[in-house]
Amino acid sequence: MKTTGYYTVSTVASLAGVSVRTLHHYDACGLLRPSIRSEAGYRLYSFDDLLRLQQILVYRAMNVPLDTIAVLLVSEEQDVIKILEHHRQIIEQEVARLQQIHATISSTIQSIEDTTMPTDERSLYEGLGAETIEAYRREVEARFDPGLIEESRNRTMRMSTSDWRRSKEEWNALLRDYASAMDQGAGSMVVQNIVARHHRWLAGYWTPQAASFEGLGELYATHGDFVKRIDQVRPGLAAFIRVAMAIYARTEMKSPTE
Length: 258
Fold this sequence. Notes:
Blueprint: E1 2-3, E2 6-8, H1 9-16, H2 20-28, E3 36-37, E4 43-45, H3 47-61, H4 66-72, H5 77-114, H6 130-143, H7 146-158, H8 161-181, H9 189-202, H10 210-222, H11 224-231, H12 237-252
Antiparallel strand pairs: 1-2, 2-4, 3-4
Helix pairs in contact: 8-9, 9-12, 10-11, 10-12
């Protein structure tokens, strides 16, 4: 409440966002005494008192001790500027430190969210039932060398989730390109270039040799789940990819001695 140009302690506390107890403490230590007191003994603050309080609160925001603030408030202007510049440097250093901490925390959060694939391998076979996953696993283990299977599993589990998403996108792009080029013929340059991309994509998971590469094409065309998923892109696509991969394996992947 403002009374004849003065403010009560409760009004000042509300305006400044401090407690009445804080203002009483500032009064007791001589840091901010009210200009006058009412006949009833209540503290009344002038506008100049409010300005002084503003200065005090600025210093407190910089963690300046109260006894130092008392000195600053009576110092010559030049001294105040030097002290303020010193505290500004301290604040700038603290801001830089906090920004570095913020960057470190953000990096850590990103690392936790995006560094590794979930350890549950079922996440790698999204959309498949448990029985289908187990049947697929048995078939892969029966068809391929255990060393290749372990290599693929280890590389996959080290992939980040963003790597995994990009890999799935590349696989979908390969299927679309295969489908678009079916009319060119499995042995055409266009299709064989797509197979070469397919080979490079697989190399991110395991090291394909001619036999295993051709065997994977066979798996695409004979495993019910693979056939269903691939042929959704274009009917007959799984069988077409098998032929294209076999041609590539027999012409591009054979060693000179074979």
